[in-house]
Amino acid sequence: MLTLDQVKSKSSGWLGGLHPVVLAAAGALIQRSYARGVPIMITQGLRTIAEQNALYAQGRTKKGPIVTNARGGESYHNYGLAIDFALLLPDGTNLSWDTSRDGDRDKTADWQEVAYEAKQLGFEWGGDWTSFKDYSHLENNFGLSINQLKSGKLPTVQQVKDALARINGTPSDSEGGTKLLITLNGQKIADGYLEDGTAYAPVRAVAEALGAKVTYDAATKTVKLVTD
User: Fold this and answer.
1) Distance CA 115, CA 108 (A)
2) What is the pTM of this model?
3) Are 224 and 216 in contact (CB under 8 A)?
4) SS3 content of the chain, % helix, strand, coil (to 5)
5) Buried/exposed 114-142: b ≥16 CB within 10 Å, e otherwise
6) Residue 1: its pLDDT value, please?
7) What's the pLDDT score for residue 216?
8) Average pLDDT over residues 14-19
9) Up-side HSE of residue 158: CA atoms within 13 Å toward CB?
10) CA-to-CA distance for 166 and 50, rounded, in angstroms?
């Protein structure tokens, strides 16, 4: 089985130029998917205007299927706010775009498991779109339109802080509560927070530190904890 470091190295060449939030979320997605038994590879990150125009020409003025409706400057990839992914097969070389594949045999399609984790990290998934489904596509546009990005508008500092807090599983400074450090046998496993006398902690981090496996059943929309 591929190690996490080996899986991460497969995507390293596609992560340059991404917005810091998208970069952090991409790294977390690779790690969370691996923990589920679903190795993935980021297959696209920042895309230049020229690259976008060339992709737009495919299926129109060039051979090949149509894969995008966005011209250069009209894709969130052009602003470092989007990534594409594929399933990394056990041989560590080949990729799969089979959205029904269940490589870890947990009765939930691997693709759905990745999409679930991506949305927990703040990504919008192209598979949820109604007009043009793009199952490989993930983006975090911070609520900004393409026209706003073209005009130079950027995510606010608070939006960035909130997004990073979500990825790290910690409360942002815009939320109430007192930050907590959660440890197991003296080792940090997660950050939490205390609010109104109740301590909050990320279930996944605590459960996996205690040896449980966390899975998601897309059919019933249920998070399951499995222990040996």
Assistant:
1) 12
2) 0.76
3) yes
4) 35, 20, 45
5) bbbbbebbbbbbbbeeeeeebbbbbbbbb
6) 81
7) 65
8) 96
9) 3
10) 33
In terms of residues, how long is the chain?
A: 228
Residue type at 14? Answer: W
How far, in whole angstroms, is CA 32 from its chain's centroid? 9
Give the three-state DSSP class for 222. Answer: strand
Is it the case that residue 141 has pLDDT exceeding 70? yes
Tell me what the pLDDT averaged over the chain comes to.
89
The answer to whether the CB of 121 falls within 8 A of the CB of 128 is: no
Q: Report how far residue 176's alpha carbon sits from residue 64's, in angstroms, rounded to the nearest whole number.
A: 52
CA 135 to CA 129: how far, in whole Å? 9
Task: State whether residue 88 is helix, strand or coil.
Answer: strand
- What does the block give as tokens for 28? 């977390």
Residue at 76: amino acid letter: Y
List the Cα angle 54/60/61 in 5-degree steps.
70
| Neighbouring C-beta atoms of residue 36, cutoff 10 Å | 21
